[in-house]
Amino acid sequence: MxxxxxxxxxxxHKNAEETEDxxxxxxxxxxxxxxxxxxxxxxxxxxxxxVEHLQFTNIGVAAQNMHQSEAGAFTGEISADMLxxxxxxxxxxxxxxxxxxxxxxxxxxxxxxxxxxxHDLEVIFCFGEELKDRQSEQHFNIVENQLxxxxxxxxxxxxxxxxxxxxxxxxxxxxxxxxxxxxxxxHEFIRQTVKTKFGAEVAENVSILYGGSVKPENAKEIFGKPxxxxxxxxxxxxxxxxxSAIVAGI
Length: 250
Ligand code: PEP
Description:
Elements: E1 4-9, H1 16-29, E2 36-41, H2 47-53, E3 59-63, H3 80-85, E4 90-93, H4 96-101, H5 106-118, E5 122-127, H6 131-135, H7 139-151, E6 162-166, H8 180-198, H9 200-205, E7 208-211, H10 216-223, E8 230-233, H11 240-248
Parallel strand pairs: 1-2, 1-8, 2-3, 3-4, 4-5, 5-6, 6-7, 7-8
Helix pairs in contact: 1-11, 5-7, 7-8, 10-11
The structure holds phosphoenolpyruvate (PEP).
Phosphoenolpyruvate binds at residues 9, 167, 172-173, 211-214, 232-236.
């Protein structure tokens, strides 16, 4: 049985004090009777305090990005080893904002994935089509290529540390959500694509999260689809009441 996961990407929100407040609020409000992994991804500067704050809970902490190199003259960057050294075991790679604003390509992401896995980091790998791709009915091709270019060089065993996050760009932060049927259709396609390359066991075990304007009102229906194993949440992860309600919908 694959794992259900709800992860909150806090992006560039919450200073140190606000991070602590939100974590306390989450500890207070998150339902403890759900069988889902819950992960939060605060900013780099607050990762260390988040790890410490959550050490006696079952809430995981993820970084929102990392550099592909081991170390070096890369001003402003963070390495996989640095993340591990403060107790972070999960990293989000390939978020559409990293792809769009920081020009991260599939080839670069493949390098980042390799470095993360080498350091025993679990990877939440994000991908998804833009609006123009869906309008021109290229969405399946785009998603297939992102998967192939970012992850298909891996060995089957490495997939134990991969979580997929399908995030149609047109649904991120826009308030427009893919319908549960659109999400299911794409997730099924993704699982089938993974199966064709890596076999049924890998495909059945990999968790595929949906991301894009998930809110308490739509979470349950989207998460109810057979190939949707949870969500990557942006805006609604910044309020403990909303995030907890989404987790309760799993
Ligand atoms: C995201 O940025 O990963 C995301 C899904 O954002 P939102 O939930 O705000 O659409």
